[in-house]
Design a protein that fits this description.
five-stranded parallel β-sheet; 8 helices; Rossmann fold; single chain; alpha/beta
Length: about 210
C-alpha cells in the first residue's frame, strides 16, 4: 500500500462541490466554509444546518441528484452519499477532468483523504491512518488534545509576531535557533497570559542566535 502525502491546502475563494446533503455532507460543508472556500451542494434534500447556510447565501444549492457535467469549474469534490453508483460516477468524471475527489469513508475511491484534526487557534495538528481506521485516528487526536493546551494557539501568534519583527529588521533565524528559543520559559509566560513578556524573551533569544 502506497503512503498518502500529507498536505495543507489553501482553499480561500476556491470552488468546491459537495455531493450529498446528510450529516456527513454537513461536516464537509462546515469545514470548507471555515477554510473560506466557495461551496456548492448537490442533493435533493439537505440537513437543517445546510439549509440555514443556503438561506444565508453562504453556499449554492442544486436541489437534485448528481449529473455528469456537475464538476465543471470545481477545484475539489466531496462525495457524501450512500449510493455506490453515484460515488463511482463522480469519481470517474473527476479523474477525467483532473478534479480531486474525496469519497467519505472510501479511500479506494478517493484522490485525497481527510485527517482527524486538533486545533488550537492557528495551530493545526492532523492525524491520519491512510484511510485504514478513522476511529483510531480520532482516538489519537483525542489523546493529543488532552495535553495540547489552549496556550499553544497563543504561542503560535507570539511566534508569528516575532517572525515578522525579525523580517522587518532584515534578520532571519534557523530552524534550530527557533527550536532552542521556544523554550519552557517562553511557553510558561504564554500559559500565564504574559504574552508581551513571552514575545520579548523569544525575540531576545533569537537575536542572540541569529543567522546573518
Amino acid at each position: 500500500m502506497s503512503a498518502w502525502y500529507p498536505v495543507f491546502l489553501d482553499l480561500a475563494g476556491q470552488p468546491c462541490l459537495v455531493v450529498g446533503g446528510g450529516a456527513v455532507a454537513e461536516r464537509k460543508v462546515g469545514a470548507l466554509l471555515a477554510a473560506g472556500a466557495r461551496v456548492a451542494v448537490i442533493a435533493p434534500e439537505v440537513t437543517a444546518a445546510i439549509a440555514a447556510w443556503i438561506r444565508a447565501g453562504d453556499i449554492v444549492h442544486v436541489a437534485r441528484t448528481y449529473r455528469p457535467g456537475d464538476l465543471l469549474g470545481q477545484r475539489l469534490v466531496f462525495v457524501a452519499t450512500d449510493s455506490r453508483e453515484v460515488t463511482d460516477a463522480v469519481r470517474d468524471e473527476a479523474r477525467e477532468w483532473n478534479v480531486w475527489v474525496n469519497a467519505a469513508d472510501d479511500a479506494a475511491r478517493s484522490d485525497f483523504i481527510l485527517p482527524s484534526v486538533a486545533r488550537r487557534g492557528p495551530l493545526t495538528v492532523a492525524v491520519g491512518t491512510g484511510g485504514t481506521s478513522p476511529a483510531l485516528a480520532r482516538l489519537v487526536r483525542e489523546d493529543i488534545e488532552t495535553w495540547l493546551g489552549e496556550e499553544y494557539g497563543a504561542l503560535v501568534e507570539v511566534a508569528a509576531d516575532v517572525r515578522r519583527e525579525l523580517a522587518e529588521r532584515g534578520r532571519r533565524s534557523s530552524g534550530d535557533a527557533w527550536t532552542r528559543s521556544l523554550d519552557d520559559g517562553v511557553r510558561r509566560l504564554v500559559r500565564e497570559g504574559r504574552r508581551t513578556e513571552a514575545r520579548e524573551r523569544l525575540l531576545a533569544r533569537l537575536e542572540n542566535d541569529v543567522c546573518a
